Amino acid sequence: MSQPSAPTPAGAGRPVLERWAPGESGRRTARDWTVDVAAFVLALGFGAFAFGSRLAQPGGVPDGLATLDLVGGLVCCALLWWRRRFPAALALLTGLFGAYSDMASGAGLVALFTVAVHRRWQVVAGVVAVNLVSVLVYYRARPDPDLGYVAAATVAASVVAAVVAWGMFVRARRQLIQSLRERAQRAEAEQAQRVEQARETERTRIAREMHDVLAHRITLLSLHAGALEFRPDAPPDEVARAAGVIRESARQALQELREVIGVLRAGPEDAAGRPQPTLADLPALLEECRRAGTRIRSDVRVADPSALPLATGRNAYRIVQEALTNARKHAPGAAVDLVVAGAPGEGLRVRVSNPPAVSAPLGVPGGGTGLVGLAERAALAGGRLEHEVGADGRFRLSAHLPWPAPVTAVPS
């Protein structure tokens, strides 16, 4: 049986961390607020330190350039509010500002970290290249008096590489956690689905067992009620006997109906353990049918019915029960021939046949699924079931069920 596909966890199929993450509704969580404020303060503090250090150097900075540096850096820090939604664009913008602005350096590092966390490595590589070019332009236009051009550019590039490496590490860790979470959710969903499938399979099995029993009881009721209807002048003792059978069959049918309804409501794990019939119970079934007026010629050639495997004996019993039920429904008054034979290693054979009806059918409604259920039961047990209506109108049903030979111990 093919297993239905498990439900896909929310977010599966989308690139991991390739989406803005303040929550599905777009609102920032308390953690997002904390991180964003910390990033803004960090960028502002780092930029102010770099800007102040540059102003304190000999020669200073022209007033116009200092004002542009300060304003551009503050704008970049303010734009960090949208760093999660547009990380690559913000990183490129801060990189361009970084070509002349010290105040924007802190915002540029935060933007680079955000890109490394939320975007693929191809995007990260492109943004890093732009920022490295910006570093080279900055130190060419505004050389550091304490360090040479190469040394200053190397230090700045090392800082950029460290920030990007840290961001990519965080990204990889988040991907791993998200993958493990989705795998756990998928495993839980599949486990729940397997449990539900097992529950439904068990309920179906129990319902099929109850169908077989209820169909048998109801046909007995219909048979005796029909006899009373068409023979109102029957002797009192015969009427009393038929009424007793009707009462007992109705009581048993109601009890079994309560059981199946309870099973289907509460689940198979809560159902009371009902003993299942086996081939050893076949004589009682035949006697009950004979008391109901069904003529049965039986030939049971099984040396020890209790030696049958329980599943095989139960399936054989249900096949005979359903065949007798169908005979009473569709061919009332006709004699039924039954042959049950078999031995270990040969299998168990069940053959039931009856001629056409000698009186009008009982009119008991049926879904036409009894024989289908029997064929499925036999197939699941590793056997087969066939039925046909011959040219003479005689209905024949034959089934073959496996009966393994006992395993003999090999002397050591």
TrEMBL record:
TM regions (residue ranges): 33-52, 64-82, 88-116, 123-141, 147-169
Domain Signal transduction histidine kinase subgroup 3 dimerisation and phosphoacceptor: 202-267
Region annotation (Disordered) ranges: 1-23
Gene Ontology molecular function: any one: ATP binding
Gene Ontology CC: membrane
Keywords from the named record: ATP-binding, Coiled coil, Kinase, Membrane, Nucleotide-binding, Phosphoprotein, Transferase, Transmembrane, Transmembrane helix, Two-component regulatory system
A matching Pfam family: HisKA_3
Reaction(s) this enzyme catalyzes, per UniProt: ATP + protein L-histidine = ADP + protein N-phospho-L-histidine
Enzyme class, UniProt record, top EC level: transferase
Enzyme Commission numbers on file: 2.7.13.3
Residue ranges that the Swiss-Prot or TrEMBL entry lists as coiled coil: 170-201
Gene3D superfamilies for this protein: 1.20.5.1930, Histidine kinase-like ATPase, C-terminal domain
Classification via PANTHER family: NITRATE/NITRITE SENSOR PROTEIN NARX-RELATED, NITRATE_NITRITE SENSOR PROTEIN NARQ
Name of the protein this chain belongs to: histidine kinase
